[in-house]
Amino acid sequence: MENKDFLVHYKKVDDIIKELYSCDTKEEAENIFEKSEITSFKDRIYILQKCMGIEKVFNSSNATEEEDYKSDLSAFEDGTWRLF
């Protein structure tokens, strides 16, 4: 990835995270991802975890990316991450 492409990608992720900070529901977060054309569960998981300040997740389950995404989305909606 070229430097310019990296910066554009980083800015897009940063803008999405800023929008997510104002969300309280799963539906609002879903709308932001759809508006931003983020369709990959892997990308959505990365952005949600970055927004919630999660450094690393060690997943020993056999969950699919969609199941992991739904789990992270539920944690996001729960909002306890905002307390840290």
List keywords for this structure.
84 residues; mainly alpha; 4 helices; 64% helix; globular
Provide structural commentary.
- The protein is mainly α and 84 residues long.
- The chain has one domain.
- Helices cover 64% and strands 0% of the residues.
- It contains four helices and no strands.
- The longest helix is centred in the first third of the chain and has 18 residues.
- The chain is globular, with a radius of gyration of 13 Å.
- The termini are far apart.
- The model has no long low-confidence stretch (mean pLDDT 87).
Give the secondary structure arrangement, pairings included.
Layout lengths: L2 H18 L5 H10 L5 H12 L12 H14 L6
Helix pairs in contact: 1-3, 3-4
Helix content: 55-70%
Average pLDDT number: 87
> How many helical stretches?
4
The share of residues in extended strands comes to under 5%
What string, H for helix and E for strand, traces the elements in order? HHHH
- How would you sum up the global shape? globular
Q: What is the total tally of β strands? A: 0
**N- and C-termini, Cα separation:** 33 Å
Structural class: mainly alpha
What is the count of distinct domains?
A: 1
Q: What are the segments in which pLDDT stays under 50 over at least 5 consecutive residues?
A: none
Rounded to an integer in angstroms, the radius of gyration calculated over CA atoms is 13 Å
The largest β sheet comes out as: none
